[in-house]
């Protein structure tokens, strides 16, 4: 049996669902999941579909036929993925270890069905953590004078290990345009999201002084606009005057771990679709 996941967005027209489902049926496929949405304001049709074929089906031939019969006539932006194929995920970290430990623990427990061929860091601090989980660790120092060389090394490592996407598990460096262009909508970041927002090196301290009532975390795809990429997942927790700065930091880190893990799982399951700097998340 062959299983595939199809993601589509295109100008909204009558009959798209019928055409797509007929395409699967005519090839003796069985649809096991389908969800669709119409962005009325922009007249955009969005769909996610899972299907199975009893006979082995070649993904390249399926793509070719879909392109000729549907994608071109309906001006579709689309992808067909093999549901059985396991993605290869890279991890970038700096010094904070809470997100890294959470990802590796979930991976070891089978919650995140990916391969993790490497961990890349601009510091040596977390090498021992990578070694505990038997994952190769690469130290790529970054200074104001070696950023082009560091970017080249990152690309070499990612291509060498055939990385499909990578996660910034509290990686405290700005991702250069070259990496973003090589991995569009395939770099996942996590950061705090306060209401109101506080920038700077100590956001929890600033939030504490202002007496905020809600703190949160946001996971998004990385774009050239810093922290303005399409949002994948968010969550919040309420706080009060009884909470200390340490309480805020601990609660914030817990949120970061959970929100990042959810975002990674959604990406792995092919449940995210990006257009117009907006992420559609299929539940």
Within the largest sheet, what's the order of strands?
7-6-5-8-9-10-11
Percent strand: 25-35%
Number of helices: 8
* Cα-based radius of gyration, to the nearest Å: 21 Å
Name the descriptors.
283 residues, alpha/beta, seven-stranded mixed sheet, four-stranded antiparallel sheet, 8 helices
Question: How would you sum up this structure, described in words?
Answer:
- The protein has 283 residues and is of the alpha/beta class.
- The chain has eight helices and 13 strands.
- The chain has helices spanning 16-26, 59-71, 98-108, 127-132, 147-160, 177-182, 203-210, 245-268; strands at residues 2-11, 29-39, 44-53, 77-82, 88-93, 115-121, 137-139, 165-168, 187-192, 214-221, 231-238, 272-275, 278-281.
- The protein has a seven-stranded mixed β-sheet with strand order 7-6-5-8-9-10-11, with helices on both faces.
- Strand 8 (165-168), helix 6 (177-182) and strand 9 form a beta-alpha-beta unit.
What topology does this entry show?
Layout: E1 2-11, H1 16-26, E2 29-39, E3 44-53, H2 59-71, E4 77-82, E5 88-93, H3 98-108, E6 115-121, H4 127-132, E7 137-139, H5 147-160, E8 165-168, H6 177-182, E9 187-192, H7 203-210, E10 214-221, E11 231-238, H8 245-268, E12 272-275, E13 278-281
Parallel strand pairs: 5-6, 5-8, 6-7, 8-9
Antiparallel strand pairs: 1-3, 1-4, 2-3, 9-10, 10-11, 12-13
Helix pairs in contact: 3-8
């Amino acid at each position: 049996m062959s299983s595939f996941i199809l993601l589509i967005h295109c100008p909204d027209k009558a009959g798209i669902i019928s055409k797509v489902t007929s395409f699967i049926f005519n090839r003796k496929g069985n649809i096991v999941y389908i969800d669709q949405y119409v962005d009325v304001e922009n007249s955009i049709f969005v769909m996610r579909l899972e299907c199975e074929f009893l006979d082995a089906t070649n993904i390249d031939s399926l793509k070719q036929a879909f392109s000729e019969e549907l994608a071109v006539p309906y001006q579709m932006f689309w992808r067909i993925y093999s549901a059985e194929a396991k993605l290869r995920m890279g991890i970038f970290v700096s010094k904070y270890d809470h997100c890294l430990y959470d990802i590796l623990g979930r991976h070891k427990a089978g919650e995140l069905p990916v391969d993790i061929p490497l961990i890349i860091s601009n510091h040596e601090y977390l090498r021992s953590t990578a070694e505990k989980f038997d994952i190769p660790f690469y130290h790529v120092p970054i200074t104001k004078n070696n950023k082009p060389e560091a970017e080249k090394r990152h690309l070499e490592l990612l291509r060498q290990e055939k990385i499909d996407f990578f996660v910034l598990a509290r990686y405290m460096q700005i991702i250069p345009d070259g990496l973003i262009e090589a991995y569009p909508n395939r770099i996942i970041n996590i950061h705090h999201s306060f209401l109101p927002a506080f920038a700077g090196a100590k956001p929890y301290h600033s939030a504490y002084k202002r007496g905020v009532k809600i703190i949160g975390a946001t996971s998004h795809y990385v774009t050239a606009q810093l922290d303005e990429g399409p949002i994948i997942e968010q969550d919040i927790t309420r706080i009060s005057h009884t909470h200390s700065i340490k309480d805020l930091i601990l609660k914030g880190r817990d949120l970061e771990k959970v929100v990042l893990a959810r975002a990674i799982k959604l990406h792995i399951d092919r449940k995210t679709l990006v257009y117009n700097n907006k992420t559609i998340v299929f539940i």
